[in-house]
Recover the amino acids of this structure.
């Protein structure tokens, strides 16, 4: 689908007294052309010149002389002297040397000066040797290290760059015996299926052709021409040579680099002397001329067999132009140049069809003294679409790009035009997706097409060729609006502008175009009006245009946009004299450029040859392969085989480039390798891609589909939006979630547009509570705030309503008046609620049973289709409507013998008993209990047994809360039930409410320390307990509280209930509650207890605290340096740290080892021959097999458990030691900052009050040291973290790295434990906070 469009051009004309141009080549280092003038009969010298661009006029090439020397004449066959000719001209940029091979045999080298090339007399000319008798052809290898010369006597010489003969070969008749060609007829019609009627005819052997070529010469072949062509890698060279001794035919001989004959070609009638080997190496191209006058390009494989052909497009009125032909492949094997007498044709192959993409005329400068001379054609070796054509009077160079002639994106029909010589293959992809090389319409013009342009509204197409221009109307036809065949409106001939080379065309306004042409040595942009059929004049004077583009369809201004050689982007107006306005500037010359206007801001997008995509001056991506621009998106493909979408913004700096994440980002989608964009159709929400082999693929990217659906919803086109969702399999919740309030206001419009009841059911059945605009279909356009986001604050505070129920209720409200027509939708709306409103749906059916039994049966069938029939049967039964239940049961697969007796028995019961039986059958025991109470109208044994059987105590208590007698009975039953379940506290409450204090005391006592106050209270009210028994209960509770370390509660019981003040004081001292101990001593006036009980308690507390603080200090001194040491080791040598050192030397595993036989390499060992640290978590390491590798594997659940135990222990020397030590330090700091600080503070105050100041000062000093140690430990173990923004960037970077490196691999077994440990250390929990320790001022603290 791509055409060749000119973006570079230049010309040079021979000036007197220089002779005619005889040869040319490229200096690839400077992109300059080396030309050779002469020798001729009147000028027996060779003038070597260099063509450079004129600084003021780049299209004008200036010549700078390089060297000049006399060329000796050669003797012709009749003995007369003739001027020598150049057979090969090659330039070596590394040595600034030009090498010329003359037909007479001279090998001439011209060495330029490195610092000042082109100065006359500076170049050194030397004839390094002479080959005899003559040279027929010569060609340098692609690596410039070898060149092959074919002499006039049939010798093939292989020479080095120093012109030493490496080897030689003689072309003889014996060469033809080398290859025994066997063709199996691939691609021949004999091997194709021709129908059953041709079966008998097809019995012949397809490997034997109907006609066997004998290799007869073409009538235009004099047998003198010889051609040499190298394969792209320089491994083989082919020689097309004719010798009478070789069967009197032309033979293509293939030699390897050592000069050994590899193969010869099969006989081909009409084969001529042209030959070009495709650089990719799969085909050699030659010329085959037929008796009827048509000429084919025949292809050969390296083994000499034919491999297809195509026919050249030769002007029927000028068959003489193809009398002499030459072939040349470009550097990347995409373009085949066919050089004729007066023109050069460029062919490109796609889908096995050869398109004529460009025809460059050179008739006016290809003649010498009235006779035709084949132009000298040369491709640039590094720029694939840059070439030079040198004819006797003139030399030109052109550069092309592969571009697509496409119509407008906005409101267009996906129009694409493909150039194939005189045929324009026109396909509107919105009408038909026709695969190339076919097209929907073939438009014929008079001459080979040069360029094509479309108007901004897509209603016109302009076709440019070297002889004129055509304007075609693009119209629609039929009710579907399909594109009709292009209709020719006007033609403007350009015969009066023969000296001009037409390059590009673009629309400036409807029926007005501007044409870029090369007039001799200057570029011109001229305006033309098709309506008046005249030229409006030259516009954009002085612009060195590179690309001429029609104004974008989003712009309100008419005109064209030009990118010049200074990278400026200029608009040329279509009015007046073509005023120019500079719109911007690219940072580099970008061959592919597209312009758009978004929110009144002009944006230029350009693509460089190396894949850099720019928006104005901003570089967006570096791996772009193609792009198009629509009214909302920039769409481009990447070398990673993705198609991506960028939402357009007025500020190019806000363009958000998506990542390579097709799984989660709607703006990225994977495509076939090498796919390129052809066009985009926003109205169809699709794009067309072309694959490398030429086939087309139309896809519907999620970004375009979602953008289209959102636009349709905003326009209230719910019918089209629904159809798109259904076709593209988009969740239909988007129809509501994108504009919730709008949808609820237009439910009637939605139902009218969708119409089909089945479609409405489909919509209702797909509803879910999830807001898809916040999950799977999040709007990726920056700055877009959805309706749900705008109401987020209100939703967080207000009670959340069910989205499904809201929509279903709105639909039901709209369908009230259409009950008969939309009965199916009404049933569906009830059933699709969350939870399903089956009862409401069945009520609808029940009401229909009274009105229309037929409708009722239809409704039952539909609801049975939507819901499980067994569940529906139970719901119908719960409505106590036996007729409805029977109707539903008849729709099920149940045996009537299963449900009919049950329903009949229900008919015989009174209503209350029937309702009780139904609820009990459906396990609705609470409702059944209500009915049972109504039946008995009082509390009965049946009620009591039913309550006990189904444990309905809470409902029964609520039911009989106003009846004291049944309430006490049920409460007693419930208390007994709770006691049996060991819920002693709740049972105690129940017994206490009934006044059963003995049972309550027993339950509270069993409840333990949680109910000691209640237990003491109920025991005091139990008259059956003696004082000793109450004392025993209090002692039991005190022991339980002592085990729970609730020292305050123990002291309360001892002091108040057991009258043991000494035990109370001891308990308070153990709990560091010294102030309470002082208060009790004062309360009971027992000062003697200060020395007998309080002081010993203080000393015990002092001893415990000092021991604890000393342990903390020693732990900090041991663990913190070890943590720092481990981190240094991990940083210096992570491989040794995570993999462990090998105690048996460097050789381990299957490679050979020193591991003793009696040593078992268990999985816990750090000796590992499996994946290393750098591959273990990426999944990219090589698979290690063998006994050792299987033994050390962590991939089993057994090893995972073992590894988890190792991690929990954190033994020294393992990879889990650091994590264990960090957690240990964290626990220590939290313990010190938690209870220890408060306990020490209370202890210090108590010691001071008892006059033990030295002990108080000692424990306070020790506590201060521990707190300072904790502060240092926190600073070293948890270094100062960076600010939140840097942390977030690091986390995002880490997540991104995890996605790219082994994203599809997750560790298992023991590896997962180690991975979790490393991840936990990386993330951390946050460093603990250590507050400053305030010393007591009475002790001199500050």
């Amino acid at each position: 689908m791509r055409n060749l469009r000119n973006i570079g051009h230049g010309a040079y004309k021979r000036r007197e007294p220089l002779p005619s141009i005889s040869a040319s080549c490229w200096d690839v280092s400077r992109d300059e052309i080396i030309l050779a003038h002469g020798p001729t009969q009147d000028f027996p010298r060779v003038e070597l010149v260099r063509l450079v661009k004129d600084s003021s006029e780049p299209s004008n090439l200036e010549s700078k002389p390089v060297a000049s020397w006399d060329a000796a004449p050669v003797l012709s066959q009749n003995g007369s002297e003739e001027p020598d000719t150049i057979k090969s001209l090659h330039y070596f940029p590394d040595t600034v040397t030009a090498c010329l091979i003359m037909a007479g045999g001279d090998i001439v080298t011209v060495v330029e000066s490195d610092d000042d090339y082109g100065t006359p007399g500076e170049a050194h000319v030397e004839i390094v040797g002479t080959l005899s008798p003559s040279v027929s052809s010569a060609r340098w290898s692609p690596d410039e290290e070898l060149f092959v010369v074919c002499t006039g006597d049939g010798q093939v010489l292989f020479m080095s760059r120093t012109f030493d003969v490496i080897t030689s070969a003689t072309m003889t008749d014996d060469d033809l015996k080398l290859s025994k060609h066997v063709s199996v007829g691939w691609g021949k019609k004999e091997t194709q299926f021709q129908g059953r009627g041709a079966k008998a005819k097809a019995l012949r052997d397809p490997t034997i052709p109907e006609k066997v070529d004998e290799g007869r010469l073409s009538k235009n072949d004099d047998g003198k021409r010889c051609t040499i062509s190298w394969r792209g890698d320089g491994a083989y060279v082919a020689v097309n040579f004719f010798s009478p001794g070789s069967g009197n035919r032309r033979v293509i001989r293939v030699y390897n680099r050592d000069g050994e004959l590899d193969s010869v070609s099969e006989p081909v009638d009409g084969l001529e002397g042209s030959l070009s080997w495709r650089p990719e190496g799969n085909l050699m191209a030659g010329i085959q001329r037929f008796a009827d006058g048509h000429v084919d390009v025949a292809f050969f494989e390296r083994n000499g067999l034919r491999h297809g052909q195509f026919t050249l497009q030769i002007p029927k009125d000028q068959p003489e132009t193809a009398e002499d032909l030459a072939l040349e492949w470009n550097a990347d094997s995409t373009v085949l140049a066919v050089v004729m007498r007066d023109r050069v044709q460029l062919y490109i192959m796609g889908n096995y069809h050869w398109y004529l993409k460009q025809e460059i005329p050179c008739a006016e400068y290809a003649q010498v003294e009235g006779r035709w001379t084949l132009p000298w054609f040369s491709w640039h070796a590094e720029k694939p679409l840059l070439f030079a054509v040198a004819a006797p009077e003139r030399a030109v160079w052109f550069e092309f790009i592969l571009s697509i002639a496409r119509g407008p994106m906005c409101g267009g029909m996906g129009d694409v035009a493909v150039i194939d010589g005189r045929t324009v293959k026109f396909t509107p992809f919105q009408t038909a997706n026709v695969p190339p090389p076919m097209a929907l319409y073939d438009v014929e013009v008079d001459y080979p097409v040069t360029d094509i342009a479309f108007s901004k509204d897509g209603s016109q197409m302009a076709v440019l060729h070297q002889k004129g221009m055509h304007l075609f109307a693009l119209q629609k036809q039929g009710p579907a609006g399909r594109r009709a065949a292009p209709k020719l409106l006007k033609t403007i001939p350009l015969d009066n502008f023969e000296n001009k080379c037409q390059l590009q065309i673009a629309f400036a306004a409807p029926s007005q175009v501007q044409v870029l042409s090369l007039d001799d040595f200057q570029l011109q942009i001229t305006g033309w009006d098709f309506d008046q059929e005249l030229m409006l004049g030259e516009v954009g004077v002085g612009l060195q245009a590179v690309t001429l583009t029609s104004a974008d369809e989003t712009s309100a201004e008419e005109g064209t946009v030009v990118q010049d050689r200074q990278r400026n982007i200029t608009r040329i107006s279509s009015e007046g004299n073509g005023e120019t306005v500079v719109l911007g500037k690219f940072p580099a010359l970008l061959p592919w450029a597209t312009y758009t206007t978004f929110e009144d801001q002009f944006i230029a997008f350009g693509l460089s040859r190396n894949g850099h995509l720019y928006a104005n001056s901003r570089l967006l991506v570096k791996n772009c392969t193609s792009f198009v621009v629509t009214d909302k998106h920039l769409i481009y493909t990447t070398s990673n085989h993705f198609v991506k979408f960028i939402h357009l913004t007025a500020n190019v700096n806000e363009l958000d480039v998506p990542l390579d994440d097709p799984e989660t980002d709607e703006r990225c989608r994977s495509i076939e390798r090498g796919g390129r964009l052809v066009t985009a159709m926003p109205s169809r929400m699709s794009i067309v891609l072309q694959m490398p082999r030429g086939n087309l693929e139309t896809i519907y990217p999620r970004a375009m589909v979602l953008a289209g659906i959102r636009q349709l919803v905003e326009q209230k086109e719910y019918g089209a939006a629904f159809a798109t969702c259904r076709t593209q399999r988009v969740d239909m919740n988007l129809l509501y979630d994108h504009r919730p309030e709008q949808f609820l206001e237009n439910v009637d419009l939605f139902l009218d547009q969708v119409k089909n009841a089945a479609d409405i059911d489909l919509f209702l059945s797909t509803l879910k509570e999830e807001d898809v605009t916040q999950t799977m279909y999040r709007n990726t356009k920056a700055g877009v705030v959805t309706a749900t986001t705008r109401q987020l604050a209100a939703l967080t505070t207000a009670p959340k309503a069910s989205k499904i129920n809201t929509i279903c209720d709105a639909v039901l409200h709209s369908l009230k008046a259409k009950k008969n027509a939309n009965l199916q939708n009404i049933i569906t709306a009830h059933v699709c609620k969350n939870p399903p409103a089956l009862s409401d749906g069945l009520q609808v059916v029940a009401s229909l049973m009274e009105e229309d039994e037929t409708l009722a049966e239809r409704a039952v069938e539909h609801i049975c289709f939507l819901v499980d029939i067994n569940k529906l049967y139970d719901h119908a039964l719960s409505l106590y409507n036996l007729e409805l239940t029977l109707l539903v049961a008849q729709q099920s697969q149940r045996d009537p013998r299963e449900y009919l007796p049950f329903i009949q028995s229900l008919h015989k019961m009174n209503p209350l008993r029937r309702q009780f039986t139904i609820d009990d059958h459906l396990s609705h025991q609470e409702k059944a209990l209500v009915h049972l109470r109504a039946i008995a109208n009082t509390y009965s044994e049946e009620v009591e047994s039913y309550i006990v059987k189904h444990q309905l105590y809470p409902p029964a208590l609520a039911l009989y809360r106003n009846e004291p007698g049944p309430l006490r009975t049920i409460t007693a039953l419930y208390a007994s039930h709770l006691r049996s379940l060991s819920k002693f506290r709740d049972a105690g409450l129940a017994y206490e409410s009934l006044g059963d204090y003995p049972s309550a005391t027993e339950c509270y006592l069993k409840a333990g320390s949680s109910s000691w106050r209640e237990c003491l209270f109920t025991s005091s009210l139990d008259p059956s307990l003696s004082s000793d028994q109450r004392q025993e209960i209090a002692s039991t509770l005190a022991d339980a509280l002592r085990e729970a370390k609730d020292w305050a509660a123990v002291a309360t019981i001892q002091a108040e209930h057991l009258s043991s003040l000494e035990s109370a004081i001891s308990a308070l001292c153990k709990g560091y509650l010294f102030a309470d101990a002082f208060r009790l001593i004062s309360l009971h006036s027992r000062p003697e207890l200060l020395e007998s009980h309080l002081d010993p308690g203080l000393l015990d507390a002092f001893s415990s605290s000092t021991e604890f603080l000393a342990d903390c200090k020693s732990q900090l001194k041991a663990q913190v340096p070890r943590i720092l040491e481990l981190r240094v080791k991990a940083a210096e040598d992570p491989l040794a740290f995570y993999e462990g050192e090998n105690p048996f030397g460097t050789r381990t595993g299957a490679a050979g080892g020193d591991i003793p036989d009696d040593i078992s390499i268990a999985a816990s060992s750090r000796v590992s021959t499996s994946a290393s640290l750098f591959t273990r978590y990426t999944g990219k390491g090589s698979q290690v097999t063998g006994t050792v590798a299987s033994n050390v594997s962590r991939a089993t659940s057994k090893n995972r458990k073992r590894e988890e135990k190792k991690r929990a222990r954190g033994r020294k020397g393992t990879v889990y030691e650091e994590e264990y030590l960090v957690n240990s330090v964290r626990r220590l700091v939290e313990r010190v900052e938690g209870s220890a600080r408060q306990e020490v503070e209370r202890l210090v105050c108590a010691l001071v009050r008892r006059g033990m100041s030295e002990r108080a000062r000692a424990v306070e000093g020790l506590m201060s040291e521990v707190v300072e140690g904790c502060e240092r430990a926190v600073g070293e173990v948890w270094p100062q973290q960076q600010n939140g923004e840097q942390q977030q960037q690091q986390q995002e970077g880490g997540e991104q790295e995890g996605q790219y490196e082994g994203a599809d691999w997750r560790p298992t077994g023991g590896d997962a434990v180690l991975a979790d440990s490393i991840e936990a250390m990386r993330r951390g929990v946050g460093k603990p906070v250590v507050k400053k320790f305030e010393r007591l001022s009475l002790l001199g603290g500050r």
